[in-house]
């Protein structure tokens, strides 16, 4: 799948593999506006839908960075910034990861919770990775089913900085994310 940015010059492309109830996302995000950078990511979601592990890399004009995140079975996140520094934190029980500017990661909690198939509302603690610096912090996000249609659903996403009604297809994957991206 590929999404084109609507409020900035960007392109995100991801290949999703679903097998035996697991999901693996392999993709790239290229941003040509603001501070130009490119990012690549590999993430795996377990059968329950929570993120098991992932790796992000960014390249900008003057820097290259990477961060790996992994969630242990006992709920501890291990975060390695590529410089040998590893942090261990529960992040208030977060099971989802969100990456700034990436549409792919918006789909993970929607799919995990089935909000595109049955109405619901949930506030989640989420491990948030900013771009292009790859800083990791805890944020709160709310997902609420607005409407379920024959083609998918409309899910309202809210965090401390924005609220948007995201149109998703029958698989819970974003088609239109207002002011962020449109699927090609």
Short account of what is shown:
By secondary structure, the protein is mainly beta. It has one helix and 15 strands; from the N terminus they run E-E-E-E-E-E-E-E-E-H-E-E-E-E-E-E.
Structure description:
Helix content is about 5%, strand content about 60%. With about 180 residues, the chain is mainly β. The protein has a 15-stranded mixed β-sheet, with helices on one face. β7 and β8 form a beta hairpin. The radius of gyration is 16 Å and the shape is globular. The termini are close together. The mean pLDDT is about 90.
Q: What characteristics describe this protein?
A:
58% strand; mainly beta; globular; 15-stranded mixed sheet; 184 residues
Spatially, the strands of the biggest sheet line up as: 8-7-6-5-4-3-2-1-15-14-13-12-11-10-9
How helical, in percent, are the residues?
under 10%
E-strand count: 15
- Unreliable stretches covering 5 or more consecutive residues: none
Strand composition percent? over 45%
Cα radius of gyration in angstroms: 16 Å
Give the averaged pLDDT, no decimals. Answer: 92
Broad shape: globular
Q: Number of DSSP helices?
A: 1
Q: Could you outline the blueprint of secondary structure elements for this entry?
A:
Layout: E1 2-5, E2 10-19, E3 22-31, E4 37-45, E5 51-60, E6 64-71, E7 77-80, E8 86-89, E9 96-99, H1 104-113, E10 121-129, E11 136-148, E12 152-158, E13 163-169, E14 174-177, E15 181-183
Parallel strand pairs: 9-10
Antiparallel strand pairs: 1-2, 1-15, 2-3, 3-4, 4-5, 5-6, 6-7, 7-8, 10-11, 11-12, 12-13, 13-14, 14-15
């Amino acid at each position: 799948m590929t999404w084109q940015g609507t409020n900035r010059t960007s392109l995100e492309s991801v290949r999703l593999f679903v097998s035996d109830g697991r999901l693996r996302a392999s993709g790239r995000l290229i941003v040509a506006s603001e501070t130009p950078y490119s990012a690549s990511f590999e993430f795996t979601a377990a059968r329950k839908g929570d993120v098991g592990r992932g790796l992000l890399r960014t390249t900008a004009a003057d820097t290259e960075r990477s961060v790996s995140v992994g969630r242990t079975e006992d709920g501890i996140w291990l975060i390695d910034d590529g410089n040998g520094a590893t942090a261990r934190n529960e992040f208030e029980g977060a099971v989802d990861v969100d990456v700034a500017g990436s549409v792919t990661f918006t789909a993970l909690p929607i799919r995990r919770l089935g909000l595109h198939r049955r109405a619901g509302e949930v506030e989640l603690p989420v491990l948030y990775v900013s771009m292009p610096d790859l800083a990791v912090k805890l944020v709160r996000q709310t997902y609420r089913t607005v409407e379920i249609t024959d083609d998918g659903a409309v899910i309202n996403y809210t965090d401390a900085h924005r609220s948007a009604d995201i149109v998703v297809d029958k698989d819970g994957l974003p088609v239109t994310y207002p002011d962020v991206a449109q699927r090609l």
